Amino acid sequence: MDFKSSDTITGPRSEDVLPDTATAAVKVVIVGGFGVGKTTMVGSVSEIRPLTTEETMTQAGVGVDDNRGVESKTATTVAMDFGRISITDQLVLYLFGTPGQERFWFLWNGLFEGALGAVVLVDTRRLEVSFDVIGRLEERGVPFVVAINSFPEAPRHNLDDLRRALDLPEYVPIFDCDARYRESSRDALMTLMRYLHEMTPATA
Q1: Between 118 and which of 12, 29, 53, 89 could a Cys-Cys bridge form, CB atoms 3.0 to 4.6 Å apart?
Q2: What's the mean pLDDT when you consider all of the chain?
Q3: How many domains does the chain have?
Q4: Which residue range(s) make up the domain with 32?
Q5: Cα 132–85–162 angle (5° rounding)?
Q6: Above 70 in pLDDT, residue 181?
């Protein structure tokens, strides 16, 4: 294919280019049921323009997708969300948000490959959608923490009560979060990283 001199070849924005100093990268996954805020969390905390695969919801999902409690939602992730955070000049954290609808869960196999751990986002208006998500992580042996995402109209519960309702072991961190805000999303990721560090056997 011949290009004319007037053709413009575009690439990533300068702020999206991986720094030359980066020498190591780790991967974590943001998971949860449909409409719990995974795309919002990746978008709020990523230092680069996040990659999203949101598509408009159509009649094809009627009777297939469970959108109870989020009936006003008009778009959904069909593959993944992707973002990046520089932990240090050398270490980069890659974020992958999973699709929430069960019919897209077959994509989880690839998204979890090489992941250190996961943040599970939970919506207390629809607590039941989190049961299968947590069960799948436990079956895979993927370390995870649980972030209770704050929705204005969502009921508030004591974290100990939520731990019992979700049947979480005492050692799994559970905490409040607001995925709309960078600081809160960053704290959720830092909680996961501290948890993973605590799980790492000390070396002599």
Answers
A1: 29
A2: 79
A3: 1
A4: 22-55+75-197
A5: 30
A6: yes
> Which has the closest alpha carbon to 149: 38, 61, 67, 43?
38
- Reading the block at residue 181, the tokens are 């805000």
Residue 67, judged by CB atoms within 10 A of its CB (0-12, 13-18, 19+), counts as middle
Instruction: Judge whether 121 lies within some domain.
Output: yes
Where residue 33 falls (left for φ over 0; alpha for ψ -120 to 50; beta otherwise) is: beta
Quick check: 182 and 45 in contact, CB under 8 A?
yes
| Burial call 156-179: b when 16+ CB within 10 Å, e when fewer | eeeeeebbeebebeeebbbeebbb
Neighbour-count burial of 108, counting CB atoms closer than 10 A to its CB (0-12 exposed, 13-18 middle, 19+ buried): buried
Q: What is the pLDDT of residue 61?
A: 47
- The domain spanning residue 144 has which CATH number? 3.40.50.300
Residue 90, number of CB atoms within 10 A of its CB: 12
The answer to whether residue 158 sits within a structural domain is: yes
Is residue 149 one of the residues assigned to a domain? yes
pLDDT digit string (tens) for 14-30?
Answer: 555 566 667 688 899 99
Show the tokens assigned to 68: 């109870």
Within-domain flag for 67: no
